[in-house]
Amino acid sequence: FPVPGTEVLCDRPIDEMLATPQSVIASEAESIASLEQPDWALQSLAMPLLVLNAPSPLWSERFVRYVKSLSTQVDYRSLNGAGHFLMLELPAECNENLFDGLKKFRLLRE
Question: 87 CB contacts (<8 Å, ≥6 apart)?
Fold first, then answer.
């Protein structure tokens, strides 16, 4: 939580992670490493894709181009003022962008 004043939000995801049963964590770890898992490299999505990210050096122009290539209907947005947990740090902005994306892709009845 890089924005001063949002440190208290850190407790919620930590509490939820610590409350996760060990069997769930082990199952997820096993499935990620399984050779039977489908190809993780997405090729083409036949659906709208709304991506909300906080600006980061990890999201290079190459990465953004890759995300935008995944579907013919991609809306990639960066929200300033947040870290990893955008929905906790900027709930109003996330909801606004989500509803805007749903309207843009005509997935929301008005």
Answer: 94
51 to 1, 21, 39, 83: CA distances (angstroms)? 20, 29, 21, 15
47: exposed, middle or buried (Cβ count in 10 Å: 0-12, 13-18, 19+): exposed
Task: Write out the two tokens for 31.
Answer: 């499935």
Question: Residue 14 is inside which H or E element, if any?
Answer: helix 11-19
Q: What is the DSSP letter of 39?
A: P
User: Could you identify the residue written with the tokens 């096993």?
Assistant: 30
> Could you read off the pLDDT of 59-76 as tens digits, one per residue?
999 999 999 999 999 999
